[in-house]
# Entry
Amino acid sequence: MSFQSLNPVNKSKSLVALSKSLSYVLRHGAEKEGLKIDSQGFIKVDDILKNNLFKNTNFKEIQEVVDTNDKKRYHMELNDSDGCYYIRANQGHTLENVDNVEMTKITSADQVGTVFHGTYRKHLQSILNEGLKKMDRNHIHCVNKIMGQEITSGMRGSCNMIVYIDVPLLLQDGIDLYLSQNNVALTDGLNNTGILPPKYFIKITDAKNDVTIWQHMRVKKKKIFIFIFFFFFFFFFFFLIFVLSNYFFFIFFIFFHFFFAPNPNFSNTHFGLGPQKKK
# Structure
C-alpha cells in the first residue's frame, strides 16, 4: 500500500515514521545498515530504497518528507556526474566519518541572531559544573533565533531550560561556530573538545516563563556598572539643572529690579549701601 492510498491522518503518521527512519540512517545508522555514506553525509536514494527499512517506500514519498519536514532536516539533490539523487541530514550526525557537511562558518556575531541551547532543568548543576557537551553527536546544537522568525529547528519542543550563548566571546576566543542549511547553530566547543564551558554562557532561563535561573557574574557586573553610571549621570544632570536654574533666576531678579524697580537707589539699597546722602 502506498502513502497516496492512505487517508490524511494515516498518511501523516506514515510520513512521520518515514522521517524517523531517514533520520536514523542519515544521522546514525548508515554503517550498521550497510549503506555507503560520504564525508558530507550523502547517501544515494536508490540505495536507501533497497534497504529493508524502506521496502514499502518510493522516491516520491522520500521527496515529500524532504519538502514538508517542519524542521528542514533533510537535503536532496541530483548528482550530475552519475544522474542519481542523493540525500543527507543537514545536522545531528553521530557518525565520525561524516565531518564535511556543508555549513557556513560564522566569523561575526552580526551573522546570527540570539543563540541558545535547549535542555532540561534536571541537568542544570552538571551544566554549570562541566559545561554543555555534544554527547554522542558531532557538535553541540543551538537555536539561532532571528527576530520576527519562528523557531523551526535546533531544540526539542519538550526542553524546559534555555542556555544563552555569548557569541562575541565565543568568536573572540577562537571557538568555531557554524550554521547548518536549516539554520541550526553548531559548535565543537572549546579547543574542539565538544565541551562549551559556563564561561561562554550569558544566562540560563526557564523555557516557559523566561525567569532567570542563573546569570554569569560578568553580566551582573555589567548591569551594576550601567546602573551606577546612569545614577550618577542623572544625579549630576539634575544637580546642574538646579544650580543653573537658581543662577539664572538670580540674574533675572537683578535684571528686573535694575530696569523696572521704582526705587532709584535700587542698586545701592540692594547691595546694602543704603541711600546716598546729599552733600
Residues 52 and 195 are 37 Å apart (CA to CA). DSSP finds seven helices and 13 strands in the chain. The longest strand covers residues 74-79. The helical segments are 8-29, 45-50, 59-68, 124-130, 167-172, 217-260, 266-270.
